[in-house]
Amino acid sequence: MAVILLGVVFAMVRVQYEVSLGAVLGLHPVFLPWTVLASLVLGGSMLGALGSAAALRRGLQS
Fold this sequence. Notes:
Layout: H1 2-24, H2 34-61
């Protein structure tokens, strides 16, 4: 749920900044594609789950 909310907020901010910066500076910012962002979030969550599982396993063995 939080990741979906974060994605929605990012999309709204992205659209706002693209329009504002394009009008003021004549530049159009380049954001990472949503597929790259999704893979980074998924990879981070997998690393977090792996670390938590290792810590839990270590804690249960003690």
